[in-house]
Amino acid sequence: MDAIETEADIAALQEAAERFARERIRPRVDAWEAAGAIAPGLYREAAELGLLGLGYPAALGGTPASWRARNAMAQTLARHGTSGGVLASLFSHNIGLPPLLAHGMPELQAEVIPPVLRGEQVAALGITEPGGGSDVAQLRTTARLDGADYVIDGEKVFITSGLRADWLTLAVRTGPQRGAAGLSFIVVPMDRPGISRTPLQKMGWHCSDTAHLRFDAVRVPQRYRLGEEGDGFRMIMRNFNGERLSLAAMALGFAQACEDEALAWARQRQTFGAALIERQVIRHRFMDMRMRCLSTQAWLDVLSDRADAQDLGPDWVAQVCLLKNHATQTLQFCADAAVQTLGGMGYMRGTVSERIYREVKVMMIGGGAEEIMKELAARQWGL
């Protein structure tokens, strides 16, 4: 796929993404939810369309693309594929590979990135630990040098694609310092002895495998470290900004999916001799949904354009954090409004809105909980 640069390119990408979502994702979601995982072949199907490689260099098998294009794809897949679990699994590499792309040696990039973008291997990110969610600076997983290897001991939890991952970009403590100063990133080949994986059961995202990982004297060559020792915290924070921008795009797409289903229902559902949409209270509910979606779209477009222009001024982190909150609150409102509009059917498995309703909370927590987002934004603005 050629570079995605123009508005026409983005429109063509959205058309391809919508077709892929409608034909290859949406009809299969219920089966994947029941199975607890997406079909492994979906990675290759997405790779063949160039969706996995969007935003990565052509030299590594990717397709250069703007943030506007990447977020348009994420939003489109969310709206028409209607499953957060599918997207979380299919695109876990988009939180696992960016630190490698920014800080890894060329030889390591060439070893890891191309097979992931071809859909042959899976990459993931390992940061969160038991008892230490948002307080990244206090993580306890250690990596000590022993000859030419790091020896890793510790645990990670809530790891998306943790059961399938071939590569894990792992946050570890390499130095004796307390807090952020002693953190580093190491890319871990997940076939190493000493790694155990335990599946976790969740409220939603049933088809996204989520794991509790344990590392018991796992040896990884020193060349798999990213950047210098002690630079990990800065890399983690930078990676979070991209993740939050993508989460906002996905949240908006899911909110629109809820509106789409509820509107179709309201137009055909008859109550007391008239279609539900003819009731003023229902029309006003849709305007509340539309208002929130439009405001989220406008803010997302502005920040996508700023990211493309590298306009990362002093308010950048604050803006991204608050957009993430606004987008997930929009999702929460629209999912609730859709279920209410569908009535009893909205409570039944098999409706889009029921599934998304169960997925709302993970979107509001993942990538940084609402409270953390507000505090980061307040600090950015000196409050």
Structure explained in plain terms:
With 383 residues, the protein is α+β, with helices and mostly antiparallel strands. It has three domains: 7-91, Orthogonal Bundle (Butyryl-Coa Dehydrogenase, subunit A, domain 1); 123-228, Butyryl-CoA Dehydrogenase, subunit A, domain 2 (Beta Barrel), CATH 2.40.110.10; 233-380, Butyryl-CoA Dehydrogenase, subunit A, domain 3, CATH 1.20.140.10. Helix content is 51%, strand content 15%. The chain contains 13 helices and ten strands. It has a four-stranded mixed β-sheet. The protein is globular and about 80 Å long. The mean pLDDT is 96.
- What's the architecture of the largest domain in CATH terms? Up-down Bundle
Give the count of helical stretches: 13
Main sheet properties: 4 strands, mixed
Q: What is the alpha-carbon Rg in Å? A: 21 Å
CA distance, first residue to last residue: 46 Å
Number of domains: 3
Give the gist of this structure.
By secondary structure, the chain is an alpha+beta fold. Helix content is about 50%, strand content about 15%.
